[in-house]
Design brief:
Chains A, B, C: Keywords: Cell membrane, Membrane, Transmembrane, Transmembrane helix. 3 copies of one chain form a homotrimer. The first copy, chain A, contains 8 helices and no strands. By secondary structure, chain A is mainly alpha-helical. The radius of gyration of chain A is 17 Å and the shape is globular.
Chain lengths: ~210, ~210, ~210
């Protein structure tokens, strides 16, 4: 996959993640700062978990703060939009869901690839892809006291797993690594977009009374 | 304590922890993947916290993924059982509670021992024993938005503290370290099993209205 | 700022943080151990997050456990007071709120300063000041399943940001670093005390029905 194109995917994903975090804070009745914090935490949380668990220091947004800056700028935009149009629910718009899917795809590949580079066993590298792609969303839901969405029926972490597996397998072949990345990104996108459009869901258990 | 026997205790504990995590997800109405994630997180969470706080890298389940595999397999079993018998509440069965006690005992000793090996002061090593033994359960309860059970009356963390103290004290003596481990494991088991059978509880504060 | 004076501020802050954590556990109907755990987690949580994210090992309370001891002792006091006088709400008393403000001020400066010493960009160092000062409170609220207070209207994290910015800017000048610390501490205190007395709040978004 073209390096520059991949970078674009990461930026789009960061914007979408920050929008989802910022709106989660708006819905939870947080204040302006809460919106900023949630936006940033969702955008950088997955990669932070990955780096902490792999023992990579300095952590990625300390080393290269570009995407952190993207997240901060996005949070300001969310703040302005949510203040001017309290009813705008940007984060549920199709556009943003698709942008989020691009982010999930890009971060899954980044996470898997970084873990493989740290001599982690292939199937554990796939787990790191999921942690990187979906971790921010889990932290978001814990902070706004919502049940982690990625675990209650959305085909989300599953798309990430599929992408991680394909990426890891293709990396073992003679094919160029750009091809592995491109295929994995395309697969995650395909699954996630199909899941959004066709309302695919994983079977979930019925919650008792409480 | 016999090395092999200790290993068996860790495996039994991992299975029990994974069952408790998996069922917490089932009860919280999560999906199949959520069951897998919770099972794994509870099983490996305490040791992960310990390694991250002590700065040990690669983290234990990256270094030696055996118990991670045990947790994954267990989560599949939970999934099947919970799907076939939705009313089976394996995690509240005596057998599983006792297996969980074995895990608490084994991981308390592992955690205390690893902390001591990292030149941590003895009483702080005891804290690491508790983090290792009870940390997974706290993460579980945060993810399913339940009040951390180990902090609301169960004699759970307390059993772990007692075991950690005894282990640390005995390690200071001339006695073989296997003896220290065996005594500590026995003590945690004894306290925990007695607490389960006799419904021992720590006094808790009454919650106001909300 | 005088080194000894700064140390006193840290101790006062630790006591206040532990009181806030302990009472949060009391209110949430936790048991005695829960009170101890919450008190300690709030007192050391922010600095722990900072050290883990910066990759500093051994973590601060493993290296120098003095403040950890202060937190433990405080938790015992909270336990006794809350048992004898269940209606005493120490943590909402003005005295404790002011002590908490002193802690926020001191830990903000500590966090910013440690981050700067690790060659972190200035604006990211400010973030580490906030993480150090306000992080413990966020962990507290997650554990007692409360919406993070620092994100729902209180001028809290904002006071920390202001202090971090002033500290970072003054450190760039020729002025002695003690002066930078003293000014930043004074500013955080001033803003926080004014916010408490005058009920200053950040605008927050209205929460929908749920």
């Amino acid at each position: 996959m073209n390096e520059a194109l991949f970078r674009v995917a990461e930026v789009i994903g960061t914007v979408a993640f920050a929008v989802s975090g910022g709106y989660a804070a708006v819905r939870a009745g947080m204040d302006w700062l809460g919106v900023g914090v949630l936006a940033v935490v969702v955008a950088v949380g997955g990669g932070t978990l990955r780096d902490v668990l792999l023992g990579i220091h300095p952590i990625w947004w300390v080393r290269e703060p570009d995407l952190l800056i993207v997240a901060c700028v996005t949070s300001v935009v969310v703040l302005v939009v949510a203040t001017v149009h309290p009813q705008s629910k940007l984060d549920t718009r199709r556009t943003v869901l698709y942008a989020d899917a691009i982010g999930l795809a890009a971060f899954t590949v980044t996470g898997t690839s970084i873990a493989l580079a740290h001599d982690v066993q292939p199937w554990i590298a796939v787990m790191f892809g999921v942690i990187t792609g979906a971790g921010g969303g889990v932290i978001r839901d814990v902070l706004v006291r919502r049940k982690p969405l990625v675990l209650v029926g959305e085909i989300y972490a599953l798309a990430s797993i599929a992408g991680g597996v394909v990426y890891t397998v293709l990396r073992e072949t003679e094919l160029p690594s750009g091809f592995a990345a491109a295929t994995a990104v395309a697969l995650v996108l395909l699954i996630r977009v199909a899941a959004i459009r066709r309302h695919w869901r994983l079977p979930r258990f019925e919650e008792p009374e409480g």
